Amino acid sequence: MISSFSAPFVRGRGAVRLTVATLVSGFVAVTVGVLAGAGPAAAAEMAQSQGGATATIGGLKTFGAAVIHAAGGDQEVSAGLFEMSVEGGGTLQTYCVDLYNPTQKDARYHETPWSGTSLGANRDAGRIRWILQNSYPQVNNLASLADKAGIDGGLTEQDAAAGTQVAIWRYSDGAAVDAVDPQAERLADYLQKAARALAEPTASLTLDAPAVSGHPGELLGPVTVHTNASGVTVTPPRDAATSGVRIVGKDGKEVTSVTNGSQLFFDVPLDAADGSAELTVQASTTVPVGRAFTSESRSQTQILAGSSESTVSATASATWAKQGAIPALSAAKNCAKTGVDITATNQGDAAFVFELMGTEHAVPAGASQTVTVPLQEDQAYDFTINGPQGVENRFTGVLDCRTQADETADLTTQTLSQPSPATVGGTSVTNDTNLAATGGTSVTPLIAGTAIGLVVIGGAALILIGRKENSTNQSRQL
């Protein structure tokens, strides 16, 4: 099920009305194939508003075997390190933090704050980061790791990867899971007992705020750069040569490169027509261990275990007008509230008024307000908000905030002597192909499909109805 929203912002006190429409019963659209054919929700040109690394998963590279214990029987799965290829250059190594959900082949992942994943509500998320920092591959001296864990006979890379993944699953999914190899199991027990809570790591590159607004002739911003990179390249709007919009620092001087903490502004000419623009920043750095990675194809959530020097990027937009309400819009998944936060900041000279889910919201001139759009787990959404300046803000994604452990606890599993081929997206593959098999066996698609089906059968789509003005596209993907 895809929820679609479309409404113009209105000047003065005219409110946008909300209509709730019930759709035909059916499963939530979560796979790549379904979304690709689902119309606007699958648009590929969306930008990642929160910034960081974007990568494509390649599969399991170093792994062993583990057994999940459930009421219906034991299920054997592969457990270990995934490898991802970063867009623009670089390689990432990750572990899974979503055991019961299969991995989609060649899924595209985005660096994501914990608040946009199941880790946001997991009180043990900090312990998972400790495990990552104190085990393989961050600790690549396996003799030393074995000694710390009290393991006689040493560890192989496969044992180290399997034991680390098993320890993570015990905290990420609350799973009753053991490593098959005794050495790997002893490592998992050591890591689980030794783990201590650590804070969430900062993003490799992000911009605050991702959207700004104001009047022509002003410096619109600030947009603050947060990064662990030594330097960041700034790319001005594509039509800067004709529009006259420049990207400048606090001193009003044009900038092409910045560092952590730098503030950027859109310098809009006084005679500019009402409109919008977008800047991009890019850097090369190592992504911090413990950063989460999610995919809009509903492929299992990953957490970073290691990074090469990799390309990271982020975007920010600006909207301007001579008079009236001038809202800047951004959105972010909020798993604590099971929804998507829509933030409107109004730098105009009139209140921005809109109605959402039966409640009228008024954002005074110079103020900001955040409204949460509630969604159901695994629900795909696609909504567009049209501003008074003719700027179309489109947000798409899938709300993926929980692991499937609770939903699958009562389902029957098979007792297997070795990992079976996992069928995902209609392709049957084995463990030595590109499709990672962590958490996946021949029964995994059934488990995941059943769980997803239980979430929503016949849900509601929220549709904001209003007069649509002529617009130019400005999109965001969460």
Quick synopsis:
The chain is mainly beta and 478 residues long. The chain contains eight helices and 29 strands.
Tally of individual helices: 8
**Strands in their spatial order, largest beta sheet:** 3-4-5-17-16-6
Number-wise, the strands total 29
Mass-distribution shape:
elongated
State the separation between the terminal residues, measured CA to CA. Answer: 17 Å
**Radius of gyration computed on alpha carbons:** 24 Å
Average the pLDDT over all residues and give the rounded result: 77
Strand content: 35-45%
Helical content (DSSP H or I, runs of 4+): 10-25%
Strand-pairing-aware structural class: mainly beta
Chain-wise SSE layout:
Layout (H helix, E strand, L loop, with lengths): L1 E7 L8 E6 L9 H5 L17 E17 L2 E14 L4 E6 L11 E5 L12 H9 L8 H7 L8 H16 L4 E3 L2 H13 L10 E4 L2 E4 L4 E9 L4 E4 L4 H4 L2 E3 L8 E2 L4 E5 L7 E11 L6 E4 L6 E6 L2 E11 L6 E8 L4 E8 L5 E5 L2 E5 L3 E8 L5 E7 L4 E8 L6 H4 L13 E3 L2 E3 L14 H12 L4 E6 L6 E6 L1
Parallel strand pairs: 1-24, 9-18, 25-29
Antiparallel strand pairs: 2-28, 3-4, 3-6, 3-7, 4-5, 5-17, 6-16, 8-10, 10-14, 11-13, 11-15, 12-14, 15-18, 16-17, 19-20, 20-23, 21-22, 24-25, 26-27
Helix pairs in contact: 2-4, 4-5
